[in-house]
């Protein structure tokens, strides 16, 4: 058996910095999204999924895994056209359709556009993965601009409400909603205060929504990752923090996006029919509080 502490690049990582929102190809090392490792087994055959933030990071890994499990995918992303096109290429190599929809999910009208496009292309929606997120690092409360607080909430939590509300009439029987929370939901990093606060809200939103939609046979769950090596890290954290990213977790390194795909696949399958309102922690050995 392989040692998980040796399964991927370990800190210290090269110090690096990018402009927000970051680009996959500029990262060192380039993340592993399961391009060469994920093997599907038709667990999502014939299903259709909407994934926000599907251009890179966890979203790309989930898109690749879903496609190899037999699902068509709509990828929502902000403006990273090159990254999104690479994701689409992997989905299409798996023999599935991929629709790319750029734009700001912090706007309710754009969220409705995403759902309208998915319904127009697929007819209905089987899986909605609310994954896109925004974060920035601030050492002092006074340094957080009002606009930054509002943008973080608009992207990370308001969009989930807009998307679910728009998708509700179009969900198929036994649909699955999967929200990306974070270890920050339960163990907030004070330098990521706006982000951490929204992640706590996502976990609460998930638990309440699961109860609200249970009579419609729609399951709602969330995945709570620990540190994951995505473009969000070098574009929102100082270089010295990037170098030690994930070092203080029991496994001693950040996860690769490929290591997050499995719980999303599991929650999306019909086999998970009695799992709703759950938080699946993928935190490298650090327990949620």
How many whole angstroms does the radius of gyration measure?
18 Å
Enumerate the spans where pLDDT stays under 50 for 5 or more consecutive residues. none
The DSSP helix count reads: 8
- Quickly count the domains: 1
CATH architecture: 3-Layer(aba) Sandwich
- Strand arrangement across the biggest beta sheet: 3-2-1-4-5-6-7
CATH level 1 name: Alpha Beta
The CATH superfamily bears the name NAD(P)-binding Rossmann-like Domain
Element string (H = helix, E = strand): EHEHEHEHEHEHHHE
Strand elements, count: 7
Structural class: alpha/beta
Terminal Cα span: 29 Å
Shape: globular
Helical residue percent band? 25-40%
Taken as a percent bin, the fraction of beta residues is 5-15%
Average pLDDT = 97
At the fold tier of CATH, the topology name is Rossmann fold
The main β sheet shows up as: 7 strands, parallel
Q: What's the quick description here?
A:
The protein is of the alpha/beta class and 289 residues long.
Q: Could you please describe the fold and organization of this structure?
A:
It is a single chain. The protein is α/β, with parallel strands linked by helices. The chain has one domain: Rossmann fold (3-Layer(aba) Sandwich). The chain has 8 helices and 7 strands. It has a 7-stranded parallel sheet, with helices on both faces. Strand 1, helix 1 and strand 2 form a beta-alpha-beta unit. Helix 3 packs parallel to helix 4. It is globular and about 45 Å long.
């Amino acid at each position: 058996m392989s040692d998980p502490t040796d399964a991927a690049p370990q800190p210290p990582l090269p110090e690096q910095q990018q402009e927000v929102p970051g680009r996959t190809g500029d990262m060192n090392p380039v993340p592993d999204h399961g391009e060469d490792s994920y093997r599907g087994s038709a667990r999502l055959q014939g299903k259709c999924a909407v994934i926000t933030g599907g251009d890179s990071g966890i979203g790309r890994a989930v898109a690749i895994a879903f496609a190899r499990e037999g699902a068509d995918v709509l990828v929502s992303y902000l403006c990273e056209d090159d990254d999104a096109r690479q994701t689409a290429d992997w989905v299409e190599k798996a023999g599935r359709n991929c629709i790319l929809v750029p734009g700001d999910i912090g706007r309710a009208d754009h969220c409705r556009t995403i759902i309208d496009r998915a319904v127009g292309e697929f007819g209905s929606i089987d899986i909605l993965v609310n994954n896109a997120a925004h974060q920035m690092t601030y050492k002092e409360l006074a340094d957080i601009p009002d606009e930054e607080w509002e943008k973080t909430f608009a992207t990370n939590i308001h969009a989930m409400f807009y998307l679910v509300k728009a998708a509700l009439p179009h969900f198929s029987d036994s649909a699955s909603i999967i929200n990306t929370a974070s270890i920050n939901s339960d163990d907030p990093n004070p330098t990521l205060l706006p982000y951490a606060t929204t992640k706590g809200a996502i976990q609460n939103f998930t638990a309440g929504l699961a109860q609200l939609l249970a009579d419609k046979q729609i399951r709602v769950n969330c995945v709570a990752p620990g540190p994951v090596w995505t473009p969000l890290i070098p574009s929102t954290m100082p270089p010295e923090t990037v170098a030690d990213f994930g070092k203080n977790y029991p496994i001693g390194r950040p996860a690769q996006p490929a290591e997050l795909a499995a719980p999303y696949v599991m929650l999306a399958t019909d086999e998970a029919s009695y799992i709703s309102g759950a938080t699946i922690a993928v935190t490298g050995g650090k327990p949620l509080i």
